[in-house]
Amino acid sequence: MSRELLYLLIPLSCLAAALLAGFLGSRIGRVNAHRSAIGGVGLAFILSCVVGWDVFSGNHFNGPVYTWAVSGGTHFEIGFLIDPLSAVMMVVVTFVSLMVHIYTIGYMADDPGYTRFFGYTALFTFAMLMLVMSNNFLQLFFGWEGV
Known about the structure:
The protein is an alpha+beta fold. It is built from four helices and two strands. A hairpin with a 2-residue loop joins strand 1 and strand 2.
């Protein structure tokens, strides 16, 4: 697996969990909604730990992973800056989010918006990761606004 794909999987696992819990929560049920959210954030945490280990072994990354728009000569890209600070923040964000997801299973047990809550918290984690990992101001702005 390429490093760029590994970096991309970290926020995308949270986005997939948010979409699954948010849009299909009423169909898949409460238990599967929180399982999908915890699974997505848990996968992001594990991958963040792998990236953290890689970064502290001396491998840094700063570059685009996806071009999402081209206008004239201007390229709008999704890119990541993976250095020691961003690696630590990725681990912190995903760990805290994972703990929040696990705790709120009991805390939100009787709430009618249970599945929607898990969709929103996974979406928040996606936005926070995009903020922490961004290497350009446009992506940083979208992450900031998502948070």
